[in-house]
Amino acid sequence: MDLNNEQLIPLLLAGDESTFESVYKHFLRPLHVYAIAILKDEDRAEGMVQNVFLKLWDKKERLSFSGSLQAYLYGAVYHECLNYLRHEKVKHKHQQHVVYTMGNNGEESGNMELMDLREKLADALNELPEKCRTIFQLSRFEELKYQEIADRLQISVKTVEAQMGKALKILRIKLVDFLPLILWLISKTNNF
């Protein structure tokens, strides 16, 4: 990069796209390697670096630099990775707590949690678009194969696959807080 900090930072903060693109191309790979060293996960590291650049662009009017751009970017990636790790640690502790609570509260608590999960699943299913919900129910509750669903609804197998993917993505998001419970239920019963 042929611009120094005194020239580069004002252009970047003013929203000059070519300057942003140059900064992005210049720092992307080294920041990705740095994030991998922190997270030990290439895909997550890539996401963290992308988040930093997205925030840099979105908040460019409100940023102020007291040092070099390089120092700012490395610091931003470091904090983005630390925040991710802290969040993962909190999620893990919550999951452990739920599993511990489920194991120590006996059958009554387990039944209440199961009823709550079934209610949340029903709510999540009701929020699916009608076609998506129908295809999901035929696949998961009536245990029909994709071809059988396609034949019954007179649609293509590709449409069934696409709608199932959409349903699973939505349900995964809506039921993410119940993952420890689902795993516990799978390990303890065949009733789910």
Helix-strand blueprint:
Layout: H1 5-13, H2 17-39, H3 42-58, H4 69-104, H5 106-127, H6 130-140, H7 146-153, H8 157-174, H9 179-188
Describe the structure.
It is a single chain. This protein is mostly helical and 192 residues long. The protein folds into two domains: 5-88, RNA polymerase sigma factor, region 2, helix turn helix motif (Rna Polymerase Sigma Factor, Chain: A); 106-188, Arc Repressor Mutant, subunit A, CATH 1.10.10.10. It is built from nine helices and no strands. The chain has helices at 5-13, 17-39, 42-58, 69-104, 106-127, 130-140, 146-153, 157-174, 179-188. α2 runs antiparallel to α3 and α3 crosses α4 (69-104). The protein is elongated, with a radius of gyration of 24 Å. The model has no long low-confidence stretch (mean pLDDT 81).
Keywords:
0% strand; mainly alpha; Arc Repressor Mutant, subunit A; 2 domains; 9 helices; single chain; Rna Polymerase Sigma Factor, Chain: A
